[in-house]
Amino acid sequence: MSHTRFPVLRGKTSGPDVPAEVLRQREAKWLDMLNHWDKWMAKKHKKVKLRCQKGVPPSLRGRAWLYLCGGKVKREQNRGKFQDLDSQPGDPKWVDVIERDLHRQFPFHEMFVARGGHGQQDLFRVLKAYTLHRPEEGYCQAQAPIAAVLLMHMPAEDAFWGLVQICEKYLPGYYSKGLEAIQLDGEILFSLLKKVSPVAHRHLKKHKMEPILYMTEWFMCAFSRTLPWASVLRVWDMFLCEGVKIIFRVGLVLLKCMLGSPEKLKKSQGLYETMELLKALPPAYMEEGFLVREVVESPVSERDIEREHVAQRRRWEESRGELRCRSPGRMHGARAIITAEPPRRQDLQQNPTILVESPPAAAAPPSNGGPGEDPAGGKGKKKKKKRKNKEEEKAAPSVPPSAPSDPPRSLKDGSRQASEESLSSQEHDSYL
């Protein structure tokens, strides 16, 4: 697999030139969604999808991804599981392969640039834990960049459960022996291309170019080693919300852009030239704004993919026999996952580690005879009231004053405070 160089610095990833005030407003909206996740997914899923298409705010991306993929619920339902797997030595066969792959993952990123650094150590822990979690599947090299992208946004335990969800729910069978699932999806992609871009489809068919030759790295790595970094994050925002159809749409957009007209095909007269063309994608086609717009407007739906899946599987079995990999059916995004496995309310709680107590109520200033008080008899009434209070204090046990139940308005309102609140929970927003 070729290495794509990504910038070390994290740039604007929630759309080009998003004003700071707009970003704060988006953060406040996302915080509200995360605090009421089950309700939003049940009643306002279209709004969640729209906000994912606009881009998750960078400060909340790690937490949002974990909620979208269902990793947060898995972690809560399996407390201590990652620590148990992490403490085990692992299968030497997989440990050796994983160790040899660590330095290949985003070698120009500050988190993974140092051999044996904290980034590579956590990547090893996550991948080793997965081989123990799924010993029948083991380790596949394409899992490493998936885990690395997750680790850039969340701690190792969260990244592990994110990887589990992607491998089991979004891309089941992709990393199993024989790679049957990815080959099947290659045929689905090729069939969908006929509807999206007949010119590109005819060209690939003419040169007998198998989909496995150009789409394997795209799909297995979820475009993390193909696109510019800003585009990777926007694609993942939509992918974890809407499922594998986003990966199909990105692939179809790139194929149409590269091979969708007779003029473009003049540079690719044969199989080798076409392969070289698809390896050197022009930056204009991968630019964040252009790519997201094309993906959102793509007509390819979940129903189209499932219909083609049935047809291609039937053809596979007729020509090659039964599939050896019996992977579970994939789930198309966050709503399908939360519907199939309804979480408990406590599984979605934020569990903050920093609690801000409300300040004590200020003492009332002494009265100087307010409206309605008799000025002449005020002192006498006060003395009687003081004597009465002293008698009551002697009779009743002392009770400490209770803290006010509602937080002050300054903590309850304001988008700036809402964005700072994102740093006060266990789900750290950025692991860098």
From TrEMBL:
Transmembrane segments: none annotated. GO terms for molecular function: GTPase activator activity; small GTPase binding. Pfam families: RabGAP-TBC. Residues 306-432 are annotated as: Disordered. It comes from the Eukaryota. GO terms for cellular component: plasma membrane. Residues 306-325, 409-419 have a biased composition (Basic and acidic residues). SUPFAM superfamilies: Ypt/Rab-GAP domain of gyp1p (SSF47923). Residues 369-378 have a biased composition (Gly residues). Residues 379-388 have a biased composition (Basic residues). PANTHER family: RAB GTPASE-ACTIVATING PROTEIN 1-LIKE, TBC1 DOMAIN FAMILY MEMBER 10A. This is Rab-GAP TBC domain-containing protein. It comes from Gadus morhua.
